Amino acid sequence: MASHIVGYPRMGPKRELKFALESFWDGKSSAEDLQKVAADLRSSIWKQMANAGIDYIPSNTFSYYDQVLDTTAMLGAVPPRYGWTGGEIGFDTYFSMARGNASVPAMEMTKWFDTNYHYIVPELGPEVKFSYSSHKAVEEYKEAKALGVNTVPVLVGPVSYLLLSKPAKGVEKTFSLLSLLGSILPIYKEVIAELKAAGATWIQFDEPTLVKDLDSHQLEAFTHAYSELESSFSGLNVLIETYFADVPADAYKTLTSLKGVTGIGFDLVRGTKTLDLIKGGFPSGKYLFAGVVDGRNIWANDLATSLATLEALEGVVGKDKLVVSTSCSLLHTAVDLVNETKLDQELKSWLAFAAQKIVEVNALSKVLSGQKDEAFFSDNAAAQASRKSSPRVTNEDVQKAAAALKGSDHRRATTVSARLDAQQKKMNLPILPTTTIGSFPQTMDLRRVRREYKAKKISEEEYVKAIKEEINKVVKLQEELDIDVLVHGEPERNDMVEYFGEQLSGFAFTVNGWVQSYGSRCVKPPIIYGDVSRPKAMTVFWSSMAQCMTSRPMKGMLTGPVTILNWSFVRDDQPRHETCYQIALAIKDEVEDLERAGITVIQIDEAALREGVPLRKSEEAFYLDWAVHSFRITNCGVLDTTQIHTHMCYSNFNDIIHSIIDMDADVITIENSRSDEKLLSVFREGVKYGAGIGPGVYDIHSPRIPSTEEIADRISKMLAVLETNILWVNPDCGLKTRKYAEVKPALSNMVAAAKLLRTQLASAK
């Protein structure tokens, strides 16, 4: 019985790659320094898996930004604006595509399926001249081989690559991206030939789009692609890997009929219905890579349950053709539980990070070979029983309060237009009011203060004094810039979810449980292990302090329940919506406390609402119903004069615009600039939006500073489809990842652009 890992985290147990990337971007270290850190991380990952007894170890899952951008580089699909003239793609071109540079913006970034990971969206069209321009997959295979580790090189499959792309600017939106299949397959053939020549015996093609609702034309593209590649596969074993959901019946039929394919991988954690398809018939002689160990959560595997699943599958495909695997890449989980020194032993016994999941995969594969580790299985059974019976998991009062929510849709009593009138009378804002999304730059000094306070190296009094000074600085800067609705900059927060989770019951926190979100950006998701409640106010102290520093409206800044849920490692012993309702009630308490404290603008961020939408259409309505309901619960009791904002970023919102309207927020700020303003197309197509809306006017994930004219042009495009009295002017997202040297001129230009448009609108009357 063999074992397989789909992919592994790249950042390192202490975020070594993050710091190496940022040092390189800041010009403090060389490309060679960055490459050395990366090589050391790859070496340790491969050796770790080899030492754990894993048979099929992946390579080319390491990336300096993301695996789709790596594929864009491999295919030489560089948009013309980056000035690339051919040859092997280097860091300058690669990172310009990812982050932009002083003269051109970055490519669009969006969510990787329904995860909090992101990828850079390829921009393709009929004029793209594809060429083999990054030999990374072959180089990393050879690198592992030189270390004595024979790996399975992993490539993003050709069909999924095209389906995850978009037509480039100037290309008709109706352009068929799949028409480019014939242009990219020759490059895949070159890569396959080089890998075969280097000694590879297996190649893994990730085709995760097979779990989505695909039409017959799209499914036919898979059949065509792998038929075309079949001759190149001679002498190789080929694995097609799927993940994140069930494979639909028609896609299963296509997948199991592909030419030249040796093995097929399925996510059997989030794709439990796929089990029935496998039991109903699996092609004889092919390997089944059974993803029974969860690659997206941190709970220890229920080994007894997984073993029963594997034994049932063994009866279908045969012992020699069954491979134990992870459900998806371990990229989406934390690296190693060994690094967690502050979790108590009971909770720790319930968990498994990437390093522990490797051990679980190996233990399951060994037991099927007759080598059961009795002590390991016994400890696992005891931990499963402990988690089910622990009193810390259940709070009866919370469960009763959540159950009492049934029967109401929790809408505010008046219409949004009536509320906006009441709010305008109170605040008297100009047309095109300016604001920011919440956070301001997190300086090294600020991080040091928080770190020292957590380590008890400074007193609470010293900490409050330092944070107050930072808030005062941020408030004064916004007043100098003449921003209309202010934020306090969130200097007390390292992370928008972690900050709230630390103050809610039912949450636990790691020291080094970092997970990559994009590029060098890492997050440390909280662990929701039990029922959730709010013991005391969380933000009122800081928001009230900030409001006392200015006569302008000061936003109270909260993270919404759906985002807290989707950006956490969530308990798997009750439905997700039940946990979300519990969080919503906790945030509702905070909203009402902020209002009582005199805060008249409260932003409840739902940055992650879109990413939680299921990958299958049939499951969307149920999710959107409880997710939108959860948001409404948080603010259903506030006064008409209290303005409720929400914020969303880096997803495709057009297909859920009616659910966004149903959230009934007074103002929504939403990412727009990096995605070529595709959000505006919804309004061009006639969707009526009566609440306030602030489509982002510039991309904060790039160091590039947009000019006043550029921002004014964006605002003008918005005014062509949105009413003047509902449009807000703001950046795409929070500013914490930027430097003040970038933030000050960008915000100054943003305010100047808003004033320019106000003058033009006034003179046009």
TrEMBL record:
Coiled coil: none annotated. GO terms for molecular function: 5-methyltetrahydropteroyltriglutamate-homocysteine S-methyltransferase activity; methionine synthase activity; zinc ion binding. Its EC number is 2.1.1.14. Keywords: Amino-acid biosynthesis, Metal-binding, Methionine biosynthesis, Methyltransferase, Transferase, Zinc. Pfam families: Meth_synt_1 (PF08267), Meth_synt_2 (PF01717). Its cofactor is Zn(2+). Residues 3-316 form the Cobalamin-independent methionine synthase MetE N-terminal domain. Pathway: Amino-acid biosynthesis; L-methionine biosynthesis via de novo pathway; L-methionine from L-homocysteine (MetE route): step 1/1. One of its GO terms (biological process) is methylation. Zn(2+) 2 binds at H658, D662. Zn(2+) 1 binds at H647, C649, E671, C733. It catalyses: 5-methyltetrahydropteroyltri-L-glutamate + L-homocysteine = tetrahydropteroyltri-L-glutamate + L-methionine. Residues 432-755 form the Cobalamin-independent methionine synthase MetE C-terminal/archaeal domain. The active site is at H701. Binds 2 Zn(2+) ions per subunit. Catalyzes the transfer of a methyl group from 5-methyltetrahydrofolate to homocysteine resulting in methionine formation. Belongs to the vitamin-B12 independent methionine synthase family. This is 5-methyltetrahydropteroyltriglutamate--homocysteine S-methyltransferase. It comes from Dillenia turbinata. The lineage of its organism: Eukaryota, Viridiplantae, Streptophyta, Embryophyta, Tracheophyta.
